[in-house]
Design goal:
488 residues, alpha/beta, TIM Barrel, four-stranded mixed sheet, 14% strand
Length: 488
């Protein structure tokens, strides 16, 4: 996407912004830490200017790849290098799978959705707030702790957590109690601002010894320049400043930075999540961070479409294919129906097939004596020879072909006689099959007790702070009568 000179020009621009413009850091402890390490700090304005030499030093200290241990060791990831790992793309609400109208999810629907995502082979880890931003009866301050509890209970895959109202404290405690690692979050407020809660999350995550994801969330033309090159510079400056902070707290901290950028729809002011410009921005950013040797999380694959249709498929396909062929390391992909607003397991099942196709593309072509099949070609010869009965065919078609589970590959007469089913029909069928058969790796009784203990600590904490009223607590506790494990 970029020439070597363009890479260097953007890098120099990033260093200039960090040293000349600087960043806003709303946290006195962080300001002192930056100052102790040679940065120019204006404590009154909370402005930090980071010298190029410190930036280069911290980029070298950050690992180029790192393990992300899952509760099931067989699902542990290696983030970085020449590997693309896929995660769940959350939505605020679920949708009716017939009308596609949004509504709040129930506790059971949330837990069921996690089970389905746990069963999908191309879902490698879970992002924060997944699959939904809470569910019925849960106060907003408890959405993240309840979400993590559901994911730990119903999935043995690696988990990423967010922060809100100090929720990361309970996430860290829950992870330690269950004996797992998590990926914490440091989220910027573009342009170039890091508020207190994000810095606290950074300190707590890094000091706990966990890996950190540094996220921005800029909109080109709004909170970032409208030009792709300018938006790359501001995104770089933000995530690299977060990386520097993590390395100053604890050198060698495992950091995953995120290029979370979308153009603004200039007719409405909303993010144009399906824009091809995102794929261009990601491809260029992947090139830069390969130079830095730091893993990069690409912009979440949210479509603008409101239903699983042709538009949704094209918007998602460009994003995952670009991430795969340009060297992205992670991508939040599965399940998003529209923006960050809706998610549904049926969409995640469709996305599983798309991810499988891209994975097959990334595997490339095997060239060997056996795959060239020269002896077989000689044996079969021209027409009327054929390869259908060959042992080579029986072996290699299974190795070479990716067979989707929700695509219609019938002939037209077969399709007509078998009910004219679409990909949505096949996805619904697969969802039912997963619900009937998939049993996630359970927690031990002591681990389950630990999860519930931490949740109760969080409920008490927020109730005392006034973030949960007495009436909300009564509704909340009534909602908890729905079983956590609806499959038992």
């Amino acid at each position: 996407m970029l020439s070597d000179e363009q890479v260097e020009e953007i890098h120099r621009g990033t260093l200039q912004v960090l040293w000349t413009t600087g960043v806003y850091i709303e946290h006195e402890r962080a300001l002192k830490l930056f100052e102790q390490n040679g940065c120019r700090v204006d404590h009154e304005a909370m402005r930090v200017r980071i010298p190029p030499a410190l930036v280069e030093e911290c980029l070298r200290k950050a690992p180029s790849s790192f393990p992300a241990p899952a509760r099931d060791p067989g699902k542990t990831l290696m983030i970085g290098g020449n590997v693309l790992c896929l995660a769940v793309a959350p939505g605020h609400k679920t949708v009716d799978s017939t009308t596609w109208e949004p509504r709040e999810a129930t506790r059971k629907e949330n837990y069921d959705a996690v089970r389905i995502l746990d069963a999908l082979p191309t879902v490698h880890f879970f992002s924060p707030y997944t699959p939904y931003f809470g569910f019925q009866g849960v106060p907003s301050c408890m959405a993240m702790p309840e979400s993590l509890a559901a994911r730990i209970r119903c999935s043995s895959k690696f988990q990423c957590v967010g922060f809100s109202n100090d929720s990361e404290m309970f996430a860290i405690e829950m992870a330690k109690a269950v004996g797992i690692e998590i990926l914490g979050t440091c989220a910027w407020a573009p342009p170039l601002a890091l508020y207190r809660d994000a810095v606290e999350s950074t300190f707590r995550t890094v000091e706990a010894g966990f890996c950190l994801r540094v996220v921005t969330g800029q909109v080109m033309g709004g909170t970032a320049p409208a030009s792709i090159a300018g938006a790359i510079v501001t995104n770089n400056a933000e995530v690299i400043a977060g990386l520097v902070l993590a390395q100053l707290i604890r050198p060698g901290t495992r950091v995953l930075v995120k290029d979370f950028t979308a153009p603004m729809n200039m007719s409405s002011g909303a993010p144009a999540f399906g824009g091809i410009e995102i794929a261009i921005h990601n491809a260029a950013s992947n090139q830069l961070f390969q130079k830095y040797g730091v893993p990069l999380d690409n912009t979440t694959a949210y479509p603008n479409s409101k239903v699983p249709d042709y538009q949704s498929a094209t918007e998602k396909a460009f994003r995952i294919m670009t991430a795969g062929i340009s060297g992205g390391n992670t991508l939040l992909f599965h399940g998003s129906v529209h923006g960050e607003l809706t998610h549904h397991p049926i969409q995640a099942i469709l996305d599983d097939d798309m991810a499988g196709m891209v994975g097959r593309y990334m595997e490339g072509v095997t060239v060997s004596t056996e795959s060239l099949a020269l002896d077989l070609i000689e044996q079969v010869g021209p027409v009327p020879g054929h390869f259908m009965s060959a042992a080579h065919t029986r072996k290699w078609w299974k190795m070479e072909q990716f067979v989707p589970k929700t695509a219609d590959r019938l002939t037209y007469p077969e399709w007509q006689s078998s009910g004219k089913r679409t990909c949505l029909d096949y996805a619904r069928q697969r969802m039912d099959e997963i619900m009937a058969s998939h049993k996630p790796m359970p927690l031990t009784p002591s681990q389950e007790d630990a999860v519930e203990r931490v949740l109760e600590e969080a409920r008490t904490h927020y109730h005392k702070k006034g973030l949960i009223t007495d009436d909300e607590m009564r509704v909340y506790r009534d909602s908890m009568k729905s079983p956590n494990y609806p499959y038992e």
